[in-house]
Amino acid sequence: MDVCLVIKKRLEELGLEQRDLAAAAAVTESYISQLLTRKKLPPAPGRTDIYEKMGKFLKLPAGELSKLADHERKEELKRTLGDAPPPLFREVRELVLRKCAPDKEKQFRVVFEKQPFGEVERLVIQKLLDVAKRVAKEELESEKWVHQVARLTGRSYEEIRVSILEFLDTDALNLSVENCVTFLDPLIESWDFDLATFDMEIVLNGRLAPGDPMKFEFVEREPGQAEEERGLKEFLRDTSLSRGATEEEIEFLKKLRIKGKRPTALYYYRELQNLRDPLNFRSLMTQTPQTKIQGKSQPEGSVAPMHKYREANGIEKQLQLDGRKRATRRWAGNKGSRGKKQKAKP
Fold first, then answer.
1. Confidence of residue 305 (pLDDT cuts 50, 70, 90)
2. How much is the pTM?
């Protein structure tokens, strides 16, 4: 039993049609048709949201379609594994080279054309794909963003939704001209690559993905630093400290390194609170400075809201109380010693 058969069977049982399923999944009827006729491989579960939408609409057990799709893709991979990578479409290569830093375009054209799809070309394109996919996945549920891309490319909302799902499911070996025209071209402003250090910088289109250029580099690590810190493992095991931590926050904590020291679980807890505090970060939005007028309150939104720190079973509060007790004992001891000295004087 595969994804195609399960969907067809449920549509028949419920008396529904492909267009009903397409509307529920917010994709085109053509996309559903290609899935059900096996002209298109089911997308990877981790790169799409259609299985959840279709599963609810077809009243299937949660996760059933995702499991079937994952199994089907693994079987397909076994059949195709080992084939030599095919050359890229010329249009794809030309677009990638056009986005390269102007002073290095000729250099990389020579490198790319030495082989049909060489190691450097695969590395560059895979990294461009990773960055563009990250943006597309983050914005998939944003109707405003999808409509904006649709306007830029002259296509409908549903067509762009389908294109995003297909784009998230592709890789460097299967990159199509349509993927490039719809996403790589509008999302990627430029890229630069250092052949000596393998450092790479990618600049995104500020209208679709505002932010600073993204830099990737190989870094030197001390022996033993690659494995997860013991303090981080203890932090993740202790739910009173790590409760509510997102995957993105945990990934950030994993990258923290302190030379010559081994942080404790409490250190990671405090870093998590610092990461969540909006007062520690500048806003990405450019705002006109506002002057506070004496006797009048500041306009709403002109000052970042105070962060409400969450306590992990009173740990922070207990630390503060212990610190105050120690300070009080030291003060009392110092006061007593001064009194004895004064009595000893003739």
1. very low
2. 0.46
